[in-house]
């Protein structure tokens, strides 16, 4: 029974780490794509913000349970 909070904290840490990695990846990809097209940069910025907020909300949801 005591491993359940550890499991939830592991899930929240993993989701936060994944969000940071995805944000960094999409930021670098969008920065490289600045020379190509501004629409691609805008798309990757919106996608990275969406994935980051999704991971934050999922980690908050796991911590609130």
From TrEMBL:
Protein's name according to its UniProt entry: Uncharacterized protein
Source species, domain of life: Bacteria
Entry keyword set: Membrane, Transmembrane, Transmembrane helix
Membrane-traversing stretches: 12-34, 40-64
Organism: Lactococcus formosensis
């Amino acid at each position: 029974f005591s491993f359940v909070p550890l499991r939830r904290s592991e899930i929240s840490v993993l989701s936060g780490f994944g969000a940071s990695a995805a944000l960094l990846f999409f930021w670098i990809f969008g920065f490289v794509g600045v020379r190509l097209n501004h629409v691609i940069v805008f798309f990757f910025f919106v996608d990275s913000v969406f994935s980051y907020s999704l991971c934050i909300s999922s980690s908050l949801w796991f911590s609130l349970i």
